Amino acid sequence: MPSHFLELPHASLEYARSGTPLNDTLTYVFLHEGLGCVELWKGFPERLAETLGREAILYSRQGYGRSSRLSLPRAPDYLENQGCLELRLVLDALELEDIVLVGHSDGATIALAYAAQFSDPRIRGVVAMAPHVFAEDRCIEAIRATTRRFEQGDLRQRLERYHGDNVDGAFHGWSDTWLSPAFSDWDITPLLSGIEVPLLLIQGEDDEYASSKHIELVRQHAKASCQTVWLPQCGHVPYFERQQDTLLSILTFAHTIGTAT
Q: Could you tell me the end-to-end alpha-carbon distance of the chain, in angstroms, rounded to an integer?
């Protein structure tokens, strides 16, 4: 998809859109993972848009992809604070009316936190793939391993293809924050009771970055209907590792909330 740019008060953000909207205004808005960007969705939003007959919009948060650079360090609450405020600016700037948020990993955390904190009538539902709601030892150890690959292996070179001059800021803005002592107590569980829109939670059974505790906490605290899909032989990236199953799960969810064709 060709990229465009949103000129927001704090940054210029890369975004793309795909699909042909129907007569109604429902749009699927994609929020990428901690090392992601528009291009790293690898065509999944386009396929979903085609399957549902809807429009998909995806954007690179500040500091990622071809968006503006980000000053570091990040605050420990950047996901539920800056991430949500930036999302609100994107939705307003694009003048969207009815929205399903689709987030992966850190993006799923932002989607859940946004639904929990903002009584935004535009949000019709949230699809959260492999969300994080607290700082778990499993995730911290996986990030340490990824940091070694970035510093000693070819991960930096691979990520530079997508993030360009943002590559170091994107990586360290993620890894340094998660690995900092100040982040060890991070926990958005108290916010989850504010969620009042339908949820679809998707996680791989072999997720190296998160245990089932995150999904269980969302189910316990959210005040809305909650569908859960566990994918066998799948790690942290369901939309890539088990794309067809992920698509079918979202299609079923769309029907249940009355947003499918």
A: 23
